[in-house]
Amino acid sequence: MTEYPYGLELWRNSESCNVYNMSTMHSHSSHEVYFLITGQRRYFIGHTIYDVAPGNLVFIPKTQLHRTTTPGEKGYDRYVINFYDEDYCQFIELLSRPVFIELMNRGCLQLPSDMVHQVYRDLEQIEQELREPSVYSKAIVSHLFQDVLLIALRYGSKKMCYQGENTETIQGVARYISEHYASWITLDEAAHMAHMEKTYFSKQFKKLTGFGFLEYLTQTRLCEAERLLRETRISMGAIAELCGFSSSNYFGDVFYRWKNIAPTQYRKLHRGEQ
User: Fold this and answer.
1) pLDDT reading at 262 higher than 90
2) What is the model's pLDDT at position 154?
3) Neighbours of 65 (CB within 10 A)
4) What is the DSSP letter of 50?
5) Which spans in the chain are helix H?
6) Residue 68 host element (H or E)
7) At what angle do helices 198-209 and 213-231 cross, to 10 degrees?
8) Counting Cβ atoms within 10 Å, is residue 16 exposed (0-12), middle (13-18) or buried (19+)?
9) Which of 73, 174, 222, 243 is 20 to 30 A distant from 46 in Cα terms?
């Protein structure tokens, strides 16, 4: 039983006057699907940067770190959907779980123009059903969302990552961090890896990803810590070590500062413990 009575949460967000940038990188316990209607966005997902254009679909698997920013043009219109595996388990099994996982890890997809219009119509209808629910709404919403996923699978082509100056190098460092977060990684080491002077590397990392080197490293570690707190019963000391924190006390301090909740309380909350 999830928090979404119709199997998903959908909202449409328009920003016409101000540039909106996520205040921090974050992740969800649910999957996310993002459809850009108008405007331009830059998405950093895990360790890959995409320039998202109107009609693109973005897939973000649960617990994946991501952040969106405005690369230049002001104003955009989008749909965002969040959903959980358990609400679509039968559909996922029909697809096969490996196919579903592959879809959720595709990043940004381009669609043929007629399929863009079909996805937009599906999402508009989902929005209407959620706004004016009836006894049939849950079935209709499920059908329409499955149609969006099938369109993405059948007609979506994976979009190339952003190809700006130093992008490949910065993405390479981000990828290294995402795979070696348990190790001791310093700014000096990251800059050396990128063959850049430290100050220049920091500016390039911030420019291309939208956040600082330390923020990305810390959030990557915290994301894995959240997963371990939800899914295991291992000790705080073990979690600290596995996630690259120097001690359990330091881990607790950092977790509380970033998440505004103690890790022990987070575990109780997400495991349904009293």
Assistant:
1) yes
2) 97
3) 21
4) E
5) 89-95, 97-104, 113-131, 137-155, 167-180, 187-193, 198-209, 213-231, 236-242, 248-259, 263-270
6) strand 66-69
7) 60
8) exposed
9) 73
SS3 at position 88: helix
Burial class (CB in 10 A: 0-12, 13-18, 19+), 24: exposed
As a whole number of angstroms, the distance between CA 72 and CA 270 comes to 38
State which H helix or E strand residue 38 sits in: strand 31-39
Task: Check whether 242 has a pLDDT greater than 60.
Answer: yes
Find residue 35's DSSP bridge partners: 57, 79
- Looking at the DSSP bridge assignments, the partners of residue 39 are 76
153's tokens? 């699978």
Name the band, by pLDDT with cuts 50, 70 and 90, for residue 72.
low
- Kindly calculate the radius of gyration of the chain based on its CA atoms and give it in whole angstroms: 20
Quickly tell me which residue has 């649960």 as its tokens. 62
Q: How far is CA 164 from CA 50, 66, 168, 169, 207, in A?
A: 10, 19, 8, 10, 11
- Cβ atoms of 26 and 258 closer than 8 Å: no
Q: What are phi and psi of 39, to 5 degrees?
A: 95, -160
Q: How many residues does the chain have?
A: 274
